[in-house]
Write a structure and sequence with these properties.
This protein is mainly alpha-helical and 192 residues long. 73% of the residues lie in helices and 0% in strands. It contains five helices and no strands. Helix 1 packs antiparallel against helix 2, helix 2 packs parallel to helix 5 and helix 4 runs antiparallel to helix 5. The protein starts with a helix and ends in a 10-residue tail after the last helix.
Length: 192
């Protein structure tokens, strides 16, 4: 095996490990967000004790939503890197003549085809959209619920945190849009 192939394989293994770590971090972050959401909703009848500070309760979830957008973008970058490296390794490893491997059924290519919003089957795309849209709607409903509760304590000043959250959510929505577009491994220009 050539030195180039050793280097490519080492980078490939590193990217695969990083991708796995990213998924673990994503799942842990979602677990923390759900725990926070359920915990604050469980004491919904008591949050009036916080007064105007109720309007601050959604902020940690907004941060989680922004972090998730970053993780989706990172997953897209890693997927592109892994797919490129996988292609180069297979090109170097396969014999010049004879039967070739079906590259669509092995490695990350197979998992990307099955779980990527841009390449998955219709039903799997539906499940992916339910996940993304469901998380987004849950956060938006929670923000609205807490702002309604805080309105009693802030009167007209409720427009300040409402405008703040609206600006953050627009920014996060654009980041999510970019991140999901980056997941399209068939796109010619991922930075667009």
């Amino acid at each position: 095996m050539s030195d180039r192939l050793h280097v490519l394989t080492a980078i490939y293994q590193s990217d695969r490990a990083d991708r796995s770590s990213t998924l673990t971090v994503s799942l842990a972050t979602m677990g923390a967000a759900v725990t926070y959401l359920v915990g604050t909703i469980a004491f919904y009848d008591k949050v009036d004790l916080l007064g105007w500070a109720i309007s601050l309760l959604p902020f940690p979830l907004v941060c989680v939503l922004a972090f998730q957008a970053q993780l989706v973008n990172l997953a897209a970058v890693r997927a592109r890197s892994i797919l490129t490296l996988e292609q180069a390794i297979l090109d170097a490893a396969e014999p010049a003549s004879g039967p070739r491997l079906d590259r669509t059924t092995i490695g990350v290519t197979a998992s990307e085809r099955a779980s990527n919003l841009h390449t998955a089957t219709l039903w799997q795309r539906g499940a992916i959209l339910i996940t993304y849209v469901g998380v987004g709607l849950t956060h938006v409903v929670y923000i609205g619920l807490m702002l309604v509760k805080a309105a009693r304590h802030l009167s007209g000043w409720i427009t300040v945190p409402a405008a703040f959250y609206a600006a953050l959510l627009v920014s996060i929505a654009l980041a999510w849009r970019h991140s999901v577009a980056n997941l399209d491994v068939n796109a010619t220009d991922p930075a667009a």
